[in-house]
Amino acid sequence: QVQLVESGGGLVQPGGSLRLSCAASGIIFSIFDMGWYRQAPGKQRELVAVITNGGTINYVDSVKGRFTISRDNAKTTVYLQMTSLKPEDTAVYYCHGRSGILSRDYWGQGTQVTVSS
Q1: Which residue among 14, 23, 48, 116 is least crowded, i.e. fewest CB within 10 A of its CB?
Q2: Mean pLDDT of 3-23
Q3: pLDDT in tens, 20-64
Q4: CB-side exposure of 18: number of CA atoms within 13 Å?
C-alpha cells in the first residue's frame, strides 16, 4: 500500500519558519519525482516546488529564495523548509510523487500551514 504522510504544518507568525516532511512508503522512492503543492481557500492547487529523481529542483516564483526542497532517499522522505513565511503562504500543503516510467502518481493527505499574527 502506497502512503505519503505529511507532517510539520501548523500556525506560525509572519517571518517565521516551518519544515514540512513527507514520508513515503510502498514505492521505489528513488525513481519518483517528488513535489509539494498547496491549495488556499477558494484557489486552485498550485505546484510550490519539485525535486526530480535526478535532483533537479524548481520552485514557483513566489517562494524562490524562501523555500528549500530536499530529499533523503535513504529515509524515503522529502522535505520543504519554509522561511520568511507570509500570510499568503497560508494553505493546505500536499506531498506528491510521480513516476513517468511507471505512469503512477500519488498524493498525501495534506497538512495545514497558517501564517498569521
Answers
A1: 116
A2: 98
A3: 999 999 999 999 999 999 999 999 999 999 999 999 999 999 999
A4: 21
